[in-house]
Design goal:
The complex is a heterodimer of chains A (863) and B (537). With 863 residues, chain A is of the alpha+beta class. Chain A is built from 24 helices and 20 strands. In chain A, helix 2 runs antiparallel to helix 3, helix 10 packs across helix 15 and helix 22 packs antiparallel against helix 24. In chain B, the strands form four sheets. In chain B, strands 4-3-5-6-7-8-9-13-12-11-10 form an eleven-stranded mixed beta sheet. In chain B, strands 16-17-18 form a three-stranded mixed beta sheet. In chain B, strands 1-2 form a two-stranded antiparallel ribbon. The chains are: A alpha+beta (863), B alpha/beta (537). At the A-B interface, helix 13 of A face helix 1, helix 2 and helix 3 of B.
Amino acid sequence: MNAYLATPLVAAGFFLVLVAAVLTRGHRGTAYRVFACCLLSAAAWSFLIFKMRTSPDLETALFWEKGVLIAIDATVVFFFHFTLIYTNERKKRLIALAYIFLTAIIVLSFSNLLLHGMQLKSYGYAPIPSNFFLFPCLFGIYFFSIFSLRYLIKASKNSFAYKEQQRFLCIIIGLVISLIGGIFDLLPVLGLPLYPGSIIGNLIFCSLTTIAILKYHMFDVRVAIRKSTTFFLVSALIAIPYAGILVGLSALLEDIPLWIYLLLLIVIAAAVQPLWRKTQDWVERRFFRDRYEYIKRLQEFSEEATGISEIERLAKPLLETLSRAMETDKAYLFLLSPTGDFVQHWGNDANDLHYPSTPFLSKNSLFIKFIDQHTRELHRRDFDIFPQLQVLPSRERNLLLQETKGELFIPLKASGELIGILILASKISHQLYGKEDMDLLASTLPQIAVKLDNARLFEQNKRRQKQIESINLFTRIISSGTEMTQALKAFVQEIQTLLPFDQFSIAIKEKGLVKGIFTFPGMPDDSEAGNAFSLQKSALEWLIQNKQTLIENDLHKEQRFPADEAHAKKGVRAIIRSPLIAKGVVFGELHFASIEPNVYNERHKDLLEQMAVQISGTVENIYLLQAERETREKLEQEIEMRTGFLRMLTHELNTPLTPILSSGKLLVEHLPPEQEIEARLAKNILAGAQTLSARLSELMDLFKSEMGLLKITPEVLETENLLQRSVKQYSPVFTGKKQDFQTKITPPLPPVLADEKRVEQILLNLLNNANKFTPEKGKITLSARTEKGFLFIEIENNGPGISPEEQRNLFLPYHHSDRFSGMGLGLVICKQLVELQGGKIWYRGQPGKGNVFSFSLPLAKQP
Amino acid sequence: MEEELTFSKDEVFQKGTPSEKWQKYCGFLELSLEEFMHIQESLLLEELEMVAGSPLGKKILGGNKPLSMEDFRRTCPLTTYEDYCPELAEKREDILAIKPLYWPCTSGKGGTSKWIPFTRRADDIAYRNTVGAFILSAASQKEDILVFPKSRVMLNMPPKPYFTGWLAANFAKRIEYRAIPPLEEAEKMTFVQRIGAGFNMALRTGVDFVASPASVLVKIGETLASPDNKTPFSIHMLYPPTLFRLTRAKMRCKRGKREILPCDLWSFKGVVSWGTDATVYKKKLEHLWNREPFELYASTETGYIAMQAWNKKGMSFLADSVFLEFIPEEEWLKNRENKNYQPSSVLLNEVKPTQVYEIVITSFHGMPFLRYRLGDLVQIIALEDDDTETKTPQMVFKARADEIIDIATFARLDEKTMWEAIDKTEIEYEDWTARKEYEGDDSTIHLYIELKSPFDNNHLAKALHARLKELHRGYEDLDNMLGIQPIRVTILSEGTFLRYLQERQCAGADLAQLKPTHINALDHVIDALLRLSANKQ
């Protein structure tokens, strides 16, 4: 058994293995089944060749050769059918034609029309073809093969998936090799002295096709070609000198010593690696040409970038290098911002190097969520495939596909977290990004992503630090002065460095209204000239409900609140508002407005929210303080006004009363007893004037007590003496009504801290009441005792008592018993006076069981 | 005159790998519930952005512009088509957010038509879902794509201006498929003519897919399989493919020792159907056409709302068609009793299995409907489907909300239940309609039915009563606990429904008004049926 005989047998076995692989892996599809038939035909073809080559005579060889012919045609027809299915070409008529051709060949093969016989060549048997062999047989074979090639090339060109293109390319290469091998089989038949090579060609073709249709991760054909070229070149560079040296040495020496062989082997072993590298470089330069430099630079970028902490210094050269390496003219970089959104981006397009700093994609965007979870890069066509991307809002879709003209979207991850997105536009040559491109990106971007993330974090920290410093400064400014306007003016000066605005105001919620309390630079905010307006449907109401910062990007495009119309008329385009929150409740808003549209972004939102948190408490305190001061001022004015009135009233009433009193007294004193009537009249006048004076006095006291102006002068007071004096003063009154007035005072009574005149006033008032409300011959008792640091004085009488309803109003002004005249002010004033001196006053009694009025005074502290 | 609508060819369909095709058209089955809800919210906010500023949007929202999903659900009232009138009825485009691509119509109450402005983007989504429906109807597992360019599709669906007509026409502009019969010819035919022409043509060309109301397929199938069916010889039968098909069918039925069945003539890859009859006729269709019907849930106002997976069990909702809310049955009942009661709703991630809900939709893609009550009841049968690894709730169509017969609050019978009960009696009938009537104070279910062969109506009533007891527990309780047997039957004379159809056609009625509704037909419809039945007699 030599190679000539073994090869077709081995090939047949190999084809059967391929059949098993195809049927096992892809048995369900029609395409796979048809291809399996093609492989079976190829196996039959190889086996029949073996049988033909091992035939004992020409006749037997002819018999097998006829079978070979049928098997060849069957292979071609089945492959053609497979191609049409695989490339989705629905050419039913062509398929029918192919099978008709096969049927014809089968029929013709059994006659001697195709082959006249067999002949013996140097390598073995060869057929003697007839004219029918060339047409239709040979023609048919090549016709269907060429058409297969045509459809495969068409499908490869029309494919918009790189993997699919590689598959078709693989099959095409295999088919071409098979056709070349077929020519090597045909030429010896036609008389040329060549070795038949179709078996080898067939092996390669079937292997490549099987791999192409079964293998999911298809190798890159271009990479394979490059590596093969490198391999062959290196092999040649080693083999040629090696052979040359051996030939030269064998010419010079009879016997080449072993050590020369060993030396040559050592030299070759040492030279392989550097030679391979150099050769690979040379091959890649030839393949990639201009791109080669940039690919190398990209691969080295990660090392060069070490130590660079500014994002811009990293991003710009990265994008330039990347664009050249990937042969595109547009590349964009989007990085994660502190708020979680992807807001900062750079492009390498000269016209749009620095976009305005508006938010790009929210962290909640479907695109961001999807690309974060997706394990690989996204292509433009994926936006038409994945359901999560099909439904992107128009704005995002336009941004990703129209404005950036993105073709490839690569997630940049550091420590498993998505920190950025790289967007590449299509290649300048309009070719698809292939596996090689993906491998290049996969090998370089992870490290670059780490560098970018470090730079991003570094910048973020810097910005954060500045923000914290600013916020602390603001807080100090706000807290430093109680005069809010001054503090806020200073605050405004500082914040202008961080936030662009033309107007700033603070508004507070006050009883269902929105009230502006500060504006800068003095233009009115939502409220006009300090007037409040309704909270309903206002921006502050929205802030109260949602408790988050609100950005209105352009009032010319959209006005959310009724007040926005007025703002827009005044030239405002963009507004950012943040709630002021104290104890979990929104009480006001910070409001910044700009005459430029779209100036506010997530970064400003973040800053404002932090600021609002810091200063909310302070603003509220200052506001409350200011409110309290205003209230107090109003109150003082009110008190001043009333006091003035009181003084005026007192003066006006006392002025005529004084002469009446003095005249009355003099009259009573100087009238002779015999002028009884005149004397009585004079006494009446005096009594009336005295009563009026007393009422006036009570009224004044009441007014003063209500205004908080009633004053006492507490001093250490000997109570005993005071009580005795009062008793003595009032005893005649009791005697007049034949009332039994007794005292129960157990000396010594300790001194109290009280106002003597006022205590006297209280006693006299209570004794007067006791006298009034106790009937004739009734009993009145005055008692005094000390207990727990207080002196308790009680005035008891056996009067009719007071009903519970009347008891409730006892110490209220203007309530008096109907049985007696008076304004009902006495007990009220007694209560005020007692309480001012630190004591209490109360009543005890029931109807029909007498009355007890008691009051307490604090004892003077003993030194 | 219609503008020429331009569409680009669907490259994924033409050149995509099976995996890519599956992702694009059937990827909705693989969304997680979280992703589903995220898509819903995202598209809702985009929709509000679009329509809140339009005059119609302002009318419905009362001038408010909701800024969040919760805000929207709180402030926007539930609506019906009447709330969009007269603007939509007059096909006014100036009050819409986006100029529509076309105006399909559907039947409204009392024989009126409802005109719906369909936007370009909504049409794109509907197209995609149509392809998905065909793929899933034929698939036996994931990524099993049996729909190809130039597949043969029979569309037994109402033509323009109905939505299905527009869908079919625009479908053809995006992908190559062979419509049977060709669309240009079909548009000149009536619905009935179109069905006939389609099946005749199908004898020559074969058919890969059919989209048809199940009742039509059952009718055709039964006609073909009927022993009385004697198709006259025609020269067209000699056409080789037709001859081959007929011969093969004859051989199959001879082998099976039975009459010819439609599945002997055609091997459908997929049968797409919808409505109550798809479920009712499921077994019949399998027998006649050797194919389980693939069910979907759609409407003109919404496009597709849900469809089955390849295992043809429950239907999965589509995240990007409409925003979905569900009114629980108890809330729906309260609202039914008291029209002023505002029922609350839940979202898809809050539904519970076995519960029945009325579905409320808010359009996406610039369509105008906000919290729109479709008037349909659906039942959630499971929260997931383990077979297909679908992680979103599964539903079945229950009934039209106004097509329920309620007897003593025990039994709420819907069309499906009645239909199944009638079928289980095994009587042969032409058509039927049933409604609630009163005998004094007692409520009854009165069935008006046209039979194919004579039968005693009392026997039929008893048989129906027994079947309903088997099918519906509440109905069983009516008898067991209350001793109520509410079924009454009136047998209509032969040809009554056909005469009704002809009468309606002569009166120029809408396609959907040609037949009486099965449940709660209006008085004048019943009167007409009785009159036509009496006239025959």
